[in-house]
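Supplementary Methods. Inverse-folding protocol.

Structures were first reduced to a discrete structure-token string of length 172. This string, shown here, constituted the complete conditioning input.
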């Protein structure tokens, strides 16, 4: 029997799925903006220079670094877009969204400070918003998903239905 047939929604199932869909839309927009607008080749050069690289080395390394950065950004854009499937209630969607958001939340601590310094210098505090919203929001969403998982012991805040065996004979 499919897993979804053994689960019943609770009063938190739809709100949790709706929250994931809403966050996914925001995170796709924020990650796209961060990947293709905020961080460009000059930003990479400035970040590398701020981290101690020579001007020549930074200019030589920036194109490949930017390509890698954008590939990772695209992976997160796709991962976040899959959050739009939350309302299907599929377990694999829950686990994928949890993985995407936990790893995106890690950006809060693994992104070098030079990224934030250069972004703030170029765009002001508004330039920091996409990163704060996507990475910080992913941390909050991850926490909410983990709490629901602990509370209900199933994906999407479902309640498990008792298993019944079709055709089983009752003993007198």
């Amino acid at each position: 029997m499919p897993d979804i047939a053994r689960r019943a929604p609770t009063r938190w199932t739809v709100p949790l799925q709706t929250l994931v869909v809403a966050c996914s839309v925001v995170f796709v927009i924020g990650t796209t903006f961060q990947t293709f607008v905020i961080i460009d080749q000059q930003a990479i050069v400035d970040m590398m220079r701020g981290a101690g690289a020579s001007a020549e080395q930074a200019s030589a390394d920036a194109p490949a670094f930017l390509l890698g950065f954008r590939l990772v950004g695209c992976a997160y854009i796709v991962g976040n877009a899959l959050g739009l499937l939350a309302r299907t209630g599929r377990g694999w969607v829950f686990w994928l969204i949890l993985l995407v958001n936990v790893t995106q939340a890690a950006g809060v601590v693994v992104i070098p400070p030079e990224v934030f310094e250069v972004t703030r210098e170029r765009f002001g505090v508004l330039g920091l918003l996409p990163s704060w919203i996507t990475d910080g929001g992913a941390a909050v969403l991850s926490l909410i998903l983990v709490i629901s998982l602990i509370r209900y012991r199933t994906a999407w805040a479902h309640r498990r239905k008792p298993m019944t065996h079709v055709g089983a004979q009752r003993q007198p």
